[in-house]
Amino acid sequence: VSAVITRGQRVRTAVLISGRGSNLAALLAAAADPAYPAEITLVLSNRPDAPGLTLARDAGVRTVALAHADYESRKAFDRAMHGALEAHGTEFIAMAGFMRLLSPWFCAAWQGRLINIHPALLPSFRGLDTHARALAAGVKIHGCTVHHVVPEVDAGPIIGQAAVPVLPDDTEATLAARVLAAEHRLYPLALARVTGKTMKTEPDQPFLLAL
Ligand code: GAR
Fold it and tell me: Is 118 designated active site?
């Protein structure tokens, strides 16, 4: 991060989405404060019909929609995405429900400047259907993780986590809702921590958010 933040201004951050955009909304709300170290300057979706794009436009944030099906390969799509990110002066990327694997090339290009939120306490429950798998496993504590992105899926260094209880009557839906509320608290804190590191706006201490 320190390599790219040279102007002492807010970090120009793109949010990558594929759908609803509730984590995007949490990041937009946090970044509405001028003291927040990241500014959301672009929202990019691989699905042109993603509801989150409307949220972004309503907040006055520029949007780009690139339908991944229009590209011949994962790398071709990632190169197009990279071009759009560069064209908008992007310094940092936060993935928020971006449901597409990234090529090793893209991960390398943005190494240290690319983070993701995952709906489980990594390294448990990488991948999809995390809430159903947590219920099936019988865990009593579940949650979410913000981590740096590396080519191996959901395996990058952990930035922060938020924990929630699993209650006896939980269904996949009730557990998902509890974790999602935790995501909305965790992600703005985690993004501020990573982008604020060189801007001295956050105390330099590790954090564990246990809700
Ligand atoms: C969130 O729960 C996020 O953690 C998850 O998708 C949801 C997106 O919701 N991401 C993943 O599963 C990534 N593999 P949102 O669009 O309302 O933020």
Answer: yes
